[in-house]
């Protein structure tokens, strides 16, 4: 059984203005108190705490690696230089982020469950949200030269053969996946070229391989999407209740009540 059965954070907020209402305060103080309390529980040397420390260690290393990769590096040195932040400070930020993540997982969101019945009801109630957009399998050729692309198109049409060597392959993409200058490609018929299209980057030529029309997803195909949506909604509801509870139990001290 987890040691984190309930989490009531006692906080004292000193307010310089006795007329200010709690709703105007930044809720960050509640998070800080919650994290301090949670961190103190982790420091206990029992089995639960040890397991949480292992999870923290794994998550911290994963975030460090991901951040390093974002800067095309194997460590945090490049991120530190570019952002002008010491590596030690980056590590503190990552640790706090992981602590907050595990805090939510193990306390507030611990018992979030979604039943099959809830998934079916959501699908039936909001089925229009679960349409599969039209998707296309497209080839894209980019050049700074408009004449070059016109020549490629003309030669291909004359020979009746399309050499797609060096073309970018866009595997089943929708309009929302692409920049706006790709929009004309969605009007093409299977096995046809677009006109040469200009953009701020240069010139583009498209070859439409095939397309899939828009369709309603089956409940099996939509199940994961629905599950994540319902989990997010429940988590938000649980968090709002938790935060409201903390606000009510937070003791506010103003100059008027101190003296």
How would you describe this structure to a colleague?
- With 259 residues, the protein is α+β, with helices and mostly antiparallel strands.
- The chain has two domains: 12-114 and 221-258, no CATH class; 134-213, Chitinase A, domain 3 (Roll), CATH 3.10.50.
- It is 49% helix and 15% strand.
- The protein contains eight helices and nine strands.
- The chain has helices at 28-42, 47-70, 77-83, 87-108, 116-125, 146-159, 219-249, 255-258, and strands spanning 12-14, 131-132, 135-143, 168-173, 192-193, 197-198, 203-212, 215-216, 251-253.
- The strands form three sheets. Strands 3, 4, 5, 6 and 7 form a five-stranded antiparallel beta sheet that branches. A two-stranded parallel sheet has the order 1-9.
- Helix 2 (47-70) crosses helix 4 and helix 5 (116-125) crosses helix 7 (219-249).
- The radius of gyration is 28 Å and the shape is extended.
> Rounded to an integer, what's the Rg over CA atoms?
28 Å
Tally of helical runs: 8
Order of helices and strands: EHHHHHEEHEEEEEHEH
Tell me the span between the first and last alpha carbons: 45 Å
Strand runs, count:
9
Query: Would you tell me the overall average pLDDT?
Result: 84
Q: Choose one word for the global shape.
A: extended
- The computed structural class is alpha+beta
- Strand % is 15-25%
The structural domain count equals: 2
> Regions with pLDDT < 50 over 5+ consecutive residues?
1-10, 12-20, 254-259
Biggest sheet descriptor: 5 strands, antiparallel
Please bin the fraction of helical residues.
40-55%
């Amino acid at each position: 059984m987890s040691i984190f059965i309930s989490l009531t954070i006692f906080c004292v907020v000193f307010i310089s203005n006795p007329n200010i209402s709690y709703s105007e305060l930044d809720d960050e103080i509640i998070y800080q108190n919650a994290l301090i309390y949670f961190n103190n529980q982790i420091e206990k040397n029992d089995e639960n705490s040890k397991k949480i420390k292992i999870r923290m260690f794994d998550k911290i290393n994963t975030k460090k690696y991901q951040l390093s990769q974002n800067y095309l590096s194997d460590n945090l040195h490049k991120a530190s230089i570019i952002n002008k932040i010491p590596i030690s400070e980056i590590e503190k930020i990552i640790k706090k982020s992981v602590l907050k993540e595990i805090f939510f997982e193990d306390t507030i969101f611990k018992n979030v469950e979604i039943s099959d019945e809830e998934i079916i009801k959501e699908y039936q109630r909001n089925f229009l949200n679960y349409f599969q957009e039209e998707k296309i399998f497209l080839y894209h050729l980019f050049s700074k030269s408009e004449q070059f692309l016109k020549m490629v198109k003309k030669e291909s049409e004359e020979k009746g053969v399309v050499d797609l060597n060096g073309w970018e392959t866009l595997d089943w993409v929708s309009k929302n996946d692409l920049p706006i200058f790709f929009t004309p490609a969605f009007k093409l018929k299977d096995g046809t070229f677009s006109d040469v299209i200009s953009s701020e980057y240069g010139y583009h030529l498209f070859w439409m391989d095939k397309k899939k029309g828009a369709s309603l997803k089956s409940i099996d195909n939509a199940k994961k999407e629905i599950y994540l949506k319902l989990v997010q909604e429940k988590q938000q509801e649980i968090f709002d209740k938790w935060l409201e509870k903390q606000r009510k139990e937070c003791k506010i001290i103003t100059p008027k009540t101190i003296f």
